[in-house]
Specification:
Number of helices: 2
Number of strands: 6
Strand order of the largest sheet: 1-6
Order of helices and strands: HEEEEEEH
Helix content: 10-25%
Distance between the termini: 22 Å
Shape: globular
Largest sheet: 2 strands, antiparallel
Length: 114
């Protein structure tokens, strides 16, 4: 295995199709109270993240989401009782735009790390 550091090119997000998120309504309770209630009812929060590797012209690329605070990997919080694979598929369907709604998009999840 090559242990040398490799630089990966980043391509602007404008080169990919994306969609705007729906605006969320503001909540009345402070976030600390909402999180405390959620922890008491559901327990520890679990999250998943995905590393998306694609080949472009024979070169590997990592896809990341660009936000106001920089780049991040797609994923998020799992629902109570949801498996890591099911939660990751659900999150990827939310993040990755599917132009044809008649096609069911199921991602092949490779290795799971913890």
């Amino acid at each position: 295995m090559d242990l040398e550091r490799k630089d990966w090119p980043l391509y602007p997000q404008q080169g990919y199709d994306s969609q705007q998120a729906k605006p969320k309504k503001t909540k009345e309770d402070p976030i600390i109270l909402r999180r405390k209630r959620k922890y008491e009812s559901e327990g520890m929060r679990r999250t998943v993240r995905a590393v998306l590797l694609v080949q472009v012209h024979g070169h590997p690329h990592v896809l990341a989401l660009q936000g106001d605070e920089g780049y991040r990997l797609p994923g998020g919080t799992l629902r109570p009782g949801e498996s890591e694979r099911d939660g990751l598929n659900r999150k990827l369907r939310q993040f990755i735009f599917n132009a044809d709604p008649t096609v069911v998009c199921e991602w092949r999840v490779g290795e799971l790390l913890s």
